[in-house]
Design goal:
The chain contains 1 helix and 6 strands, in the order ββββαββ. It is mainly beta. The longest helix has 10 residues.
Length: 118
């Protein structure tokens, strides 16, 4: 049960081109957003869609796979954990953000798209 304590699984579409950063330590990090859609009917029976945006961070081999194969609009499955962190803006405002640190990424789509697992 300990693996269920902080586990996130999403399937959605990449919202923009991933940002890849090569750190001085030699590590590679990828950042990108994923949109997930929830479809439901309103009280009046009208079809509604609610879109949520998630920030994904991936390191190492997973970041390399993302750099090679992931682009805007690509359908992707992500498994990872939620991580919250705080920082201070240039204006001195304290901000807190929550991101998903990916442990596994599965590229989805048709046969024309290369599928790979990180």
């Amino acid at each position: 049960m300990s693996t269920l304590k902080n586990n996130v699984q999403l399937i959605g579409n990449v919202g923009g081109e991933p940002t890849i950063t090569n750190l001085e330590s030699g590590k590679k990090v990828a950042r990108f957003s994923v949109a997930t859609n929830e479809h439901y009917k309103s009280g009046k029976g009208e079809k509604q869609t609610n879109t949520n945006w998630h920030t994904i961070v991936a390191w190492g081999k997973t970041a390399e796979i993302i750099e090679k194969y992931v682009s805007k609009g690509k359908e992707i499955a992500v498994e990872g954990k939620l991580v919250s962190r705080s920082y201070e803006t240039k204006e001195g405002e304290k901000r807190t953000i929550t991101e998903i640190v990916a442990s596994e990424v599965l590229l989805l789509g048709n046969k024309n798209n290369k599928a790979d697992k990180a």
